[in-house]
Specification:
fatty acid metabolism; 24 strands; eight-stranded mixed beta sheet; 422 residues; Rossmann fold; Immunoglobulin-like; Acyl-CoA_thioEstase_long-chain; single chain; fatty acyl-CoA hydrolase activity; alpha/beta; BAAT_C; six-stranded mixed beta sheet; Thio_Ohase/BAAT_N
Amino acid sequence: VRPAICLSPAARSLFDEPLAIAVKGLGPRQQVTLRASLRDERDELFQACARYQAGDDGTLDLSRCPALPGGSFSGLESMGLLWALQPQKPFRRLVKRNVQSPFLLQLEVFEGHGDPPGRLLAEAQHERAFLRDGVRRVPVREGRIRATLFLPPGNGPFPGIIDLYGIGGGLPEYRACLLANYGFAVLALAYYSYEDLPKEMKEFHLEYFEEAVNYMLQHTQVKGPGIGLLGISKGGDLCVSMASFLKGITATALINASVANVGAVLRYKDITIPPLGSNIKRMKVNKSGIADITDLLNNPLEGPDRQSFIPLEKAECHFLFIVGQDDHNWKSEFFAIEGSKHLQAHGKEKPEIICYPGAGHYIEPPFFPMCAASMHLLVGKPVMWGGEPKAHCKAQIDAWQQIQAFFHKHLTGKPSGTSNKL
């Protein structure tokens, strides 16, 4: 009997779905090394490996068999080969640029625990897809809007969400389309450094975002009366500003967001909110040249920096704050707590705050490997994002469920348990 890798689902799964991995046909208690490899669209290689020992029957099931020390992870981690993937060149972060094609995951089983690994015993390939069958991807170029709308299969209308990413700019679609797989109409919205939008983060006009909100509210496939907002990092404080000044927002979910305006001037009609001040002297750079910018920003509760605090008490929506307690980009937990205090001081509903110990800044959909450090566009050097890989992975799985439940509750009026599973 030749060893073979058994996967379930066998050939293809959605990126945020668990994948069951087993190896059959090994010798009793045989020692092997498993390796997972994946190339992104820029041909950057990401790899993880783990050392295992087969059971008495020659079977190795990753959901029952702990990884031994010496690999990319150890312990009982059925999805470790995915969440522990690391770039072979430093400071690369795994992102999906074209959601219409899957990532190709290569799995290999080698003899023994040597380094380099022994003889190749078995291999398999598996597609990790982003679009469920039937999800429609609609490029949107209406008025000034530069966006992509994802519509779930079936007849709408569907609860609508606008999804905003951080200071990387461009138009990331992967979170929006993964969310659309669960029955939401999701608009991935670019706001700078994309097509004919401004190239740099100098100032943003809320009228642009208002156009996107109105586009969603008027769309025949979007169920009213209001929509949801989902934002991470800089996209998060833009969502706070949208919720505070624009009509038609029912629920706002924020991932490691600031409650002060950051990085660029924000204008709306005759209102101007300056960006929060910062002091480059508070940046620490370690021996490897990686910057820790946690303390860079000023306190938005003090002095002139108070003008940067977004008046979120004006918002007429429910708030959810997702917080990585090891975020090294900025003080996400402090921002969430101050936002909550501010809302309650103005007689508003207390927001939901979910804190994850050991989670860093980039809390992504499940099974994206944690990026410990990468280039920061504004700082001009690699910065550390924080996080401990195992805890960060667990946080991503839970946060994804919490975000969906929050939007189901406030945009459809029914808990997610009763929604029609696709």
